[in-house]
């Protein structure tokens, strides 16, 4: 039941907003009593924290599955992007704005965890890309893994990148192309072009 509550809550939060959705709405949507939800989560903040952990762990498992395939590092980046977008409902603006504004402590912990995972993932991606002559040899991997994380985070800022101008999918594709073109060899650029042609 706990996982069913997390899954139902996640869908409502991502579609309607972390602040907007009430415990009553979650219970009604699931066809259970509010008491059932409170049996597993003492309040809404505890539920939001659990949903954030649940989404993070689900996405991490998905990324692990992609990494195990040991595909071309450029294809790998696009596969991870697709996985994340699918899990986060294409990252609608309002829910994540509400999450950051109304649950800042939970958001800060999640962001720290995301940074650690992404830095490890991107560093490994860079190392394999260099070995395969897809990325240039003279890259500062620590710098690039950090700038990649902050770039991905920044394009979610609605003041700078309003969704009236770009969809989140477009932004992620533009950013991936921008990132790869900055680090790729001629061979890597060709792989990028192949990916963009078939995306």
Based on the model shown, name its key terms.
Tetracycline Repressor, domain 2, elongated, mainly alpha, 199 residues, 0% strand
**Beta-strand residue percentage:** under 5%
Shape call? elongated
Q: Could you tell me the mean pLDDT?
A: 92
The largest sheet is:
none
**Record field, number of beta strands:** 0
> What structural class do helix, strand and pairing data support?
mainly alpha
Order of helices and strands: HHHHHHHHHH
The N- and C-terminal alpha carbons lie at a distance of: 38 Å
- Helix proportion of residues, in percent? over 70%
How many domains make up the 3D coordinates?
A: 1
CATH topology, what is it called? Tetracycline Repressor, domain 2
Low-pLDDT runs of 5+ residues are none
CATH class annotation? Mainly Alpha
- Supply the CATH architecture: Orthogonal Bundle
- Rg, Å, rounded: 19 Å
Helix count equals 10
Can you give me a brief rundown of this structure?
By secondary structure, the chain is mostly helical.
Write a structural description.
With 199 residues, the chain is mainly α. It has one domain (58-198): Orthogonal Bundle (Tetracycline Repressor, domain 2). It is built from 10 helices and no strands. The mean pLDDT is 92.
Question: What's the arrangement of secondary structure elements?
Answer:
Elements: H1 2-16, H2 23-30, H3 34-40, H4 44-68, H5 73-87, H6 93-102, H7 104-131, H8 141-154, H9 168-183, H10 186-198
Helix pairs in contact: 1-4, 4-5, 4-7, 5-7, 5-9, 6-7, 7-8, 9-10
